[in-house]
Amino acid sequence: MDLHxxxxxxxxxxxAILADLARIRDELDDPLPQDWDDAAxxxxxxxxxxxxxxxxxxxxxxxxxxxxxxxxxxxxxxxICGDDIAAPRLDLxxxxxxxxxxxxxx
Length: 106
Known about the structure:
Blueprint: H1 3-29, H2 36-72, H3 87-92
């Protein structure tokens, strides 16, 4: 496993999430329209944006934890059992702290 490439990939995703979160914050700060119908639609849009922001914040935390594990040499090892996390699993979920067997418990 190429940790340098993995770190670059995780860092790029982290930067993209930070940009998305900044855009979401800007859109949520926009004033509501004066028209009631438009305001109702805008509030629904804001709720969707907040949900997206929450999901991205959770992903951001997982990515930052994975980057810390890379720095400490713990990346690629399950945080529950200590076994290796299979490379194909890390390819699919690069921020996962769990092997496939421990993931349901994590």
